[in-house]
Amino acid sequence: MNFLRHHWFDVGLALALAVSIALLFTTLSPVSLLLWISLIALFVHQFEEYRFPGYFPGMINLVVSHADFDDS
Question: Domain boundaries in the chain?
Fold first, then answer.
């Protein structure tokens, strides 16, 4: 369970890739296709926020808690 807690965004990227491949081989209505593409975009966005470059959690903690992380 620790793996999933620490790497949920990596799993999301793998799911986005799997859904992308599945969409290549299926015929869907335009609305369904748009919804699946939106899910893929969400997974990719979460991956780029949390893994690459990975500073979003620290930035949000700084903004919300007004913490001062200066060592001086």
Answer: 2-65
